[in-house]
Amino acid sequence: MATATLSQFRNESVTDFSQPANRQAMEEALKKVRSEFGREYQLRIGSQWIGTGDKLSSVNPSNPNEIIGVHHRANAGLANRAVEAACAAFPQWAATPAEKRIHMTAEVARILRARKLEFDAWLVFEAGKTWPEADADVSEAIDFCEYYAREMQRLSGPQPVVQLPGEQDEMIYIPLGVGIVIPPWNFPLAILVGMTVASLVTGNTAIVKPSSETPTIGAKFAEVLLEAGFPESSFTLLTGSGAAVGDVIVQHPKTRFIAFTGSRDVGLRINELAAKTQPGQIWIKRVIAEMGGKNAIVVDGDADVDKAVDGVLFSAFGFQGQKCSACSRAIVDAKVYDQFVEKLTAKAKNLKVGSADDPGNYMGPVISAGAQKTILNYIEVGKKEGRLVVGDQPAPAGGYFIMPTIIADIDSKARIFQEEIFGPVLAVTKAQNFEHALELANDSQYGLTGALFSNTPEHLRQAKNRFHVGNLYLNRKCTGAMVGAHPFGGFNMSGTDSKAGSPDYLLLFLQAKSVATKL
Ligand code: NAD
Asked: Measured between alpha carbons, how far is 283 from 281 in angstroms, rounded to an integer?
């Protein structure tokens, strides 16, 4: 089975949309997905399909009049039932040979690859991703499956321990129990898939609560899991509001761990609720939380300014600044500050904003009316805190569009320097020198990604030691982490220091058991 056939891990190639055949195929995928708009999706617990009648509609953020999917929402009673069912199914799923689970996980990758453009299209319509951003998301989802399948092969084999004389000594990894998977909407496939397959391939049963902004992508992925052979009892897709069902599944005494990716505030709440032992609970819950960021790119006095401008531009405005890794602070040495701001301004003014399904647009919409309002409020705050250099042109009508916005001359105590905005808003700050720039970069409660553009080897070395972020990039953009090459996850309020797509990750979903046999 899979054990013998998995080759060395390689990252999935992204689709080259400059090729006419690929463009044509993507247009067809968009058309096919469009024909499925408005379909209704029921809940499923085990083999039972449930229509609650309490429905949630997801919309196309490029055109909110279009309903993408209609989903039956779970309530507290069903949330409790889902945990009980996952708990009942756990012993059998945990006892399923790891090889079978690995095989199913590799199958998920195969199916996603075969349906890649179709998934791209769902992401374009439900999450507002442009074609290349959607394709990168689906590629990353495939990478997580391929990578974790191989990692499980390593972890399901014998682990190296010292052999004492007269004994056979072993250490084996066993699953934890019922896992709650709570992903965000911004990588509605990759993060959902990564945390879900990590839970399942290690032998845990999972309850997956997709974001209310992107439930259709969750429902489509649930179809793939079943097609790949994962038993109905091994996972439940529990669509519902975070507030209504989230607390119930997090607090349930039979929940063993929570894998969460999202905002700082929700992550902290989950951590707090999970820490409180419930009546009947016989373990300490494990929380794997990956949270927000306020990522800085430092531009040194001797940096190649053109390269720095391109790196900042892409990191700040790709997917409308809605990546946890997005650059929201550019900290620029006084020697090149004016030149940098001028060049960045010129390029940012040329970025095209509009519907995500039109490949001519560089930026699509932000995710929702609520997000649009929050971001526009931050822009008003920013205008008082600094000098607006880009962002005064009107955004296109019809969708949740926001123009790329750059506010220069921002002080490090300003709100737009300190708070995560999660939209296309960049604060630019002048530093007196490299030391000062590093100090400013580290002046944050977060510590997710960061980058330095410099031609001074000593400064690059200093950044490696002292720029306190989980993902540091030197002379390149601060987004676009690749599974396996750039293990992903941050420090401080950016999370629990876990690293997705790394050899450490699956250990978070397992516990080690030592067995010593007297010979
Ligand atoms: P969010 O915190 O609002 O929601 C995340 C998930 O939590 C959603 O599924 C939501 O329904 C659920 N939720 C909300 N309230 C809940 C509750 N009380 N109990 C349980 N679940 C609840 O975040 P978002 O807006 O979906 O995503 C954006 C945030 O995610 C940003 O802060 C971004 O930086 C962060 N993010 C971090 C990473 C990372 O790897 N560190 C990756 C992507 C996104």
From this structure: 6
| DSSP β-bridge partners for residue 287 | 258
Q: For ligand 1, pick from 182, 214, 322 the residue to mutate: most ligand atoms within 8 Å of CB.
A: 182
Q: Which amino acid is at 112?
A: L
Q: How far apart are CA 386 and CA 329, in angstroms?
A: 13
Query: What share of residues in the chain are helix, strand, coil (percent, to 5)?
Result: 40, 20, 35
Start-to-end CA distance of the chain, whole Å, equals 33
Residue 307 class from Cβ within 10 Å (0-12 exposed, 13-18 middle, 19+ buried)? Answer: middle
Name the residue with the closest Cα to ligand 1, atom 42.
Answer: 324
Q: How far is the CA of 290 from the centre of ligand 1 (A)?
A: 9
Q: What single DSSP character describes residue 370?
A: H
Distance CA(83)–CA(76), nearest Å, equals: 11
How high does pLDDT run on average in the chain?
97
Q: Nearest Cα to 419, choosing from 485, 338, 328?
A: 328
With tokens 């089975």, the residue in question is: 1
Q: Whose CA is nearest to atom 35 of ligand 1?
A: 262
Output the CA–CA distances (angstroms, integers) from residue 337 to 140, 213, 312, 317, 333, in the order listed: 35, 39, 13, 20, 6
Angstrom CA distances, 239 to 68, 70, 85, 260, 308, stand at 15, 11, 16, 15, 42
Residue 476 Cβ contacting ligand 1 at under 6 Å: no
Copy the structure tokens of residue 295: 């990522």
In angstroms and rounded to an integer, the radius of gyration of the C-alpha atoms of the chain is 23
- Answer yes or no: are the C-beta atoms of 488 and 505 closer than 8 Å: no
pLDDT tens across 410-453, in order?
Answer: 999 999 999 999 999 999 999 999 999 999 999 999 999 999 99
- If pLDDT is split at 50, 70 and 90, which confidence band does 2 have? very low
Strands 43-45 and 63-72: unpaired
Beta strands in 63-219 (DSSP E): 63-72, 167-175, 178-182, 205-208
Q: Which residues are catalytic?
A: 290, 324
Residues 72-123 have pLDDT tens digits of: 999 999 999 999 999 999 999 999 999 999 999 999 999 999 999 999 999 9
Nearest alpha-carbon partner for 509 in 12, 173, 17, 134: 173
Would the pTM count as exceeding 0.90? Answer: yes
